[in-house]
Structure formats: C-alpha cells, structure tokens
Amino acid sequence: MGQKTVTAVTAISKIQKRAFARSSALVVIYGEELGRKFDLEEGKLNIGRSSKSDIQIDHDSVSRQHVRITVTEGQAEIEDVGSTNGTFLNDESLEGRVQLRNNDLIKVGRTVFKFIAHNNIEAAYHDEIYRLTTVDGLTQINNRRFFDEAIEREISRSRRYNRTLSLVLIDVDHFKRINDTFGHLAGDAVLKEVASAIKKRIRKEDLLARYGGEEFAVLTPEVDQKGALAMAEKVRKVVEKHEFNFDAERIPVTISCGVSTLGKKGDGAEALVQRADEKLYEAKEAGRNQVC
C-alpha cells in the first residue's frame, strides 16, 4: 500500500471579518487607469481636466471643472458643475443633485466609474485586483504595464500644459554575473534593494517602475534634462555606496543611467524611451556606473 495522503487543515477566516475600506469609492471600469480605485472621504471631491482636480481626467471631452461628489455621513451625492459635454449617470444625462446608489455608473468624458457604497467588501476586491495588475511582485514598485500607461498620460499632460518631462532608464551593471556568482536569490534581493534605494531618492511626483528584468524607469514630470541628470547622478551614487549583503556575503552593485527629455511636438513615448535607451547604452559602453 502506498503512503496515505493527509489533507492539511487550514484555518480560513470569514471574508466579512477581513480588513477592507470603510469609505465609499469610485472604480475606473473603462478608460485610462483601468481598475484604479478612488476612496471618497467626507467632504467634496471634484473631477475634471484641471490638474487641481481631486481626480484628473486629462482629455479634451472633459471640462476643467466637470462634476462634483459630496459625501456627508457616508451618503454620496453627485452634481454636474456646468460641464460642456455633461455627465451621465447610468446612461442618462445627470440633472441636478442626485444621491448615488451602490453600483451606479458615472460617465465623465470617455471614462466610466463604478460607485461602490461604504462598508462594501467589493472595494477591497478592486484594491487587490488593481494592485496585482499594476505592481511588480518582486520589487513592489509599479510594473511595466503601469509604466506604459503612465508615460502616454504624462506626455499628453506635458503637451497640454506646455511642461517638460524627462525619463531615466536604469540598468543594474553586470547583473548576470551577480546571478552566476551569488545565485538567483541573491539577484532577487539586489533588485529589491536597488528599487528601494531609488524610491528613497526621487520625488513623490516621480514615477518609478520595473521596466524589465534588471532595468528600472523613472518618469520625472516638470523636470528638464539638467534636473533629470542631477537626479540620476544622486541615485547612481546612492546605489554605489549602498552595502548589499546576502547570506553574509557582500555583493558589489552599481548602476548605469540613460536620460532623455521630451522634445519636439511630434515626440511620443517610443521616441522618448528610445533616446533614453541609447544614452543607457552609451553609459554601459563607456565603462558602466555612470550617467549619460
């Protein structure tokens, strides 16, 4: 007789007992930032094209001040604030001030939000799904999918408001050698620490993502080439001076950086990334551990 298999007994908590958001929320179910959830706290929340809006939708069909949601004692009311193209609630034109109900659909321009009432466990589900689809599992920073969406959005915003935008591509030097010498677990540990080191040296407005295997990308809105070069140099020095250890062994780690800035009007994401990649290649060809 073969060995009897025993089913492991696992204590599973009731789903209602798990922690979840208590506030109402809006979830993007169509449009840019698909799946993103916005919590609705007590008070007024403005949605519009203006960069000062609580939720900004940077599209021509959206007015600078488009729609307002007011939350009082857990109840949410919505009203259009004189937008050019109107707001639609459950496919009907929004007139006056209306109380929102669970699962209501709100259309602002090309973006559709789903309203989730407070104390609804569905909000926790949307939080987790969005996190799983936009966060890199190893480094816990934004993933490539999030970056690809963000760069298009930031370029559009830069064009609209005539603001500069820079990109820094970062590559861990001789990463294959690190894996071969110290093992893949050590390589994973290095990537996590590099991501953490970069995150501590950039602004809240900057966007950090894992771009590829050992490559990272930083989008820096409203930063020109000089500023982006200075930021990249700070990050390079931080990594160079950081002590990376795994299983009591010190691992020497450096990075190379390539910087590009949004140029002529015809520039798009592909051109911005390509120039940064070319500069990254120059840095590696020149001996690595430097910024170009």
Describe this structure in words.
By secondary structure, this protein is α+β, with helices and mostly antiparallel strands. The strands form four sheets. The chain has a six-stranded antiparallel beta sheet with strand order 2-1-11-10-7-8, covered by helices on one side. Strands 4-3-5-6-9 form a five-stranded mixed beta sheet, with no helix packed on it. A four-stranded antiparallel beta sheet has the order 13-14-12-17, sandwiched between helices. The longest helix has 18 residues. About 5% of the residues have low confidence.
Beta content:
25-35%
Low-pLDDT regions: 8-21
Taking the sheet with the most strands, its summary is: 6 strands, antiparallel
Using DSSP, what is the number of strands?
17
Give the overall silhouette: elongated
Secondary-structure class: alpha+beta
Strand order of the largest sheet: 2-1-11-10-7-8
